[in-house]
Amino acid sequence: DDASPAAQQPLPEGLRQRIAAADPKPTSDESDMDNMFREEEESDAPQRSKKETIANLTKVLPQGSDKMGMFDPIIDLVPERWRNWVVRGIFTVIMVSGFSFIVSRGPMALMLLVFGIQFMCFYELISIGLVVYRVFDLPWFRLLSWYYLATSNYFFFGESLIEFWGILLRKDQFLHFLVAYHRLISFGLYIFGFVWFVLSLRKGYYMRQFSLFAWTHVCLLLIVSQSFLIIVNIFQGILWFLIPVAMIICCDIMSYMFGFFWGKTPLIKLSPKKTWEGFIGGAASTVVFGLVLSYALLSNPFYVCPVEDYAVDNANCTIPSSFQLREFALPKPIGWIKPKISLYPFILHSIPMSLFASLLGPFGGFFASGFKRAFKIKDFGAIIPGHGGLMDRFDCQLLMGTFVNVYIHTFIKVPNPSKLLTQILWLSHENQLVIFESLKENLQNAGILPPQ
């Protein structure tokens, strides 16, 4: 759409021939899709524009619809205006119910859920690259993309899991090798993939191969790094994961409902269906919902206990200070009437999180909308009827998870004695004695321990 009229003019015949000569013909073992692309390129279609070309390339991508298989005859009885609303509502209830069940299974189930969503989102993004850049025939690209996904996960999650589960891993010398040389192994795995990519370069396809190499790394940045931060949030306590996720879900649902019933004023051109009425209604609903849900769950140890070690019951812990009732001094002139108020700190923390979820979180969706418009597609996939692909539903969640992780490290996180002890136990016995003597001396000087 942004191409100038000059850019949309057909290329001179001489230039087209030089481009065709510089691009060698693919081999005969390519897919029918590649043959279709080649026939389009070689045909005499001077009026074809860039928009039409991209549209043809992306037609093969699965797109979301309101089809529900065997239930289609029932859905067809619903008026067309309400059909998408009904299908989205049904699958929203199904997804929320399934998510609630997984939450009840504990942190490990949530980690597996995040991994599963990560893999599917990566698959949806990589599929767009495969189609748009017409490289079904390029050697090793698909396998190399998934190899980088596995390597990135090993790098990001290896150290995090080691920090929390190091005491148990310490008992196995083989695992100790993986711990001691984790970053070296990660770098070695990446270099192996780097050399693999260089050796796979094919003359005439350099630009396409390097474009897809960059595409893969952007997908890793958007998906793997942010899913890693989300899992780190789970380690701080399920509530730090559950409340932000629920806020995004609430904002999405309420924005859709307010926009559906009362929306008239367009909000942003990237998403023509988004309205100011839906945006404001979703924001107000999210703030109220966040306060109510936070107050309802913060007294349950299952949700607030940090995941220190999978061998320890996370429902039996010392409640973190953010979830303990505290007194706060009220500013004047309110303080003249009531000087102090008792409040759970997490209630206050839920306010900036809900504001981010409702005011800035939607921009993750707008970013995804711009991405889809760039490639002339409606959805990232078709796995969820009425919603599209998983990336269509979790674009805002990734951005929200990153904000919560930054918020925790900025305002919440304090040194963790259990984590420090885990790191000390990894040291040699000589270094442990040095730490012991130094700590004993400091405690004696402070008068906490009697002199020897």
Kindly list the characteristics that best describe this protein:
452 residues; two-stranded antiparallel sheet; 4 strands; 19 helices; flat; disordered N terminus; mainly alpha
Compile the SSE list and pairings:
Elements: H1 13-22, H2 32-42, H3 50-57, H4 72-75, H5 80-104, H6 107-132, H7 141-169, H8 173-180, H9 182-200, H10 206-235, H11 238-262, E1 266-268, E2 271-275, H12 276-297, H13 301-304, E3 326-329, H14 334-337, E4 340-343, H15 345-360, H16 362-374, H17 390-412, H18 417-425, H19 429-445
Antiparallel strand pairs: 1-2, 3-4
Helix pairs in contact: 6-10, 7-8, 7-9, 7-10, 7-18, 10-11, 10-17, 11-12, 11-15, 11-17, 12-15, 16-17
Descriptive account of the structure:
There is one protein chain. The chain is mainly alpha-helical and 452 residues long. The protein is built from 19 helices and four strands. The chain has helices at residues 13-22, 32-42, 50-57, 72-75, 80-104, 107-132, 141-169, 173-180, 182-200, 206-235, 238-262, 276-297, 301-304, 334-337, 345-360, 362-374, 390-412, 417-425, 429-445; strands at 266-268, 271-275, 326-329, 340-343. Strands 1-2 form a two-stranded antiparallel sheet. Strands 3-4 form a two-stranded antiparallel ribbon. The longest helix has 30 residues, at 206-235. It is flat.
